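Researcher: Final request for today, and then I'll write up notes for the group meeting. The sequence and the SMILES for magnesium ion follow.
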Amino acid sequence: MFIDRAKIHVKAGDGGNGMSSFRREKFVPKGGPSGGDGGRGGDIVLVVDPSLNTLIDFRYKRKFKAGSGENGQTSNMFGSDAENLYIKVPPGTVVRDEATGEIIGDLTAEGQELVAAKGGRGGRGNARFVTSVHRAPTFAERGEPGDDRTLLLELKVLADVGLVGYPSVGKSSILARVSAAKPEIAAYHFTTLTPVLGVVSVREGQSFVLADIPGLIEGAHEGKGLGHDFLRHIERTRIIVHVLDVSGLEGRDPIEDYHKINDELKLYSDKLASRPQIVAANKMDLPEGRENFPRVAEYLAKQGREVFPISAATGEGLPRLLDRAVALLAEHKDEPAPAAGHVVYTAPPAAAVTIRRDDDGAFVVEGREIEKIVAMTNFENDEALRRFQLAWRRLGIDADLKERGIKEGDTVRIRGAEFEFKE
Ligand SMILES: Nc1nc2c(ncn2[C@@H]2O[C@H](COP(=O)(O)OP(=O)(O)OP(=O)(O)O)[C@@H](O)[C@H]2O)c(=O)[nH]1
Ligand SMILES: [Mg+2]
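Model: Predicted protein-magnesium ion complex:
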């Protein structure tokens, strides 16, 4: 089966905790602070593997977690960094952050990488907090939590040339004729339910990827037939070969078909409508095809459209069509533009702190920065606690809480931790 959408959950590694320790050496009465930093948590990195062509693996494995950094140690030893976790995806994978709906990556080229979730940095050990006035700090930071998010993956076929047209006009028959692909071919509509790719070798060293795209019908742009799903795929082809059943075997007029399909492309997006397009007038082996062809050809010529009479059944006319496709591809080398090589996802700016009440009356404080600070603070240490209070004041949370009517002794919750409010 061809799976072209998947939802996965990724959790980057947490940073290791910083260490709080003091040197103990022979003959040195009082050693200085020597706690090392924690190591960095592993990133979650998506990487393009051209040997894949579906997202099917994500049906079975949907959760990914990178390792945490090692904790810092005594004697100024740093914890080691965790390894990144690489997840292989097929070329043509578009990555969205579920929470914001924003596209965070468009992975097209072999080896292209996207850091989809950043590992947390290691907490600093107490040796890092020495200042001229504070020679023996006893506190250390905890590691920063790694990013945690749900990603929506969507595979859009990447092909040089797309076969577009009504059902049963012979798109799959063409692909089967000119490549080694073996799409299903049958007289009923919507035989092809998912795109099929084939490599077409025209002459020595000249080849391109041809996509057989499921048939379109009127109303496709609003979801009729197989609709949107496949218009999406056409978006990623550089050239469109519009296939018409010129024999009118099914009682439709090929000229009307031509307009209806182009209207659908246009209604879906102007970009699709303006993509280079040539017409393949198929089923020329049938007498009705030969009869209709002059009229259709004349009409399309007036529209400024190149048209090629072909028969997928006999192979007639196909070499000329393919030669023209190769020439057009050479003219339109760099569309659609490939995405940048390496993209690092940056989290949205720390949203302002929000405060809400829990059912039991407790005040719940939410916000990326304060939650991070809570996670990195060791509350058992007085000095760490004092630093926390400074950050708390800097973020102006006290004032907000008072505005919401907080009183001495009320409960405040942040990221699972509970505090008692004191003036
Ligand atoms: N006589 C004749 N029949 C053809 C030709 N090309 C395709 N057909 C027949 O037309 C029917 C539909 O062909 P397909 O290739 O499955 O059509 P399709 O466009 O892929 O159709 P969908 O996948 O349903 O969108 C089949 O019965 C084919 O054998 C041709 O050149 N000549
Ligand atoms: Mg087909």
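Model: The first helix runs from residue 171 to 178. The first strand starts at residue 5 and ends at 11.
Researcher: Thanks, that's everything.
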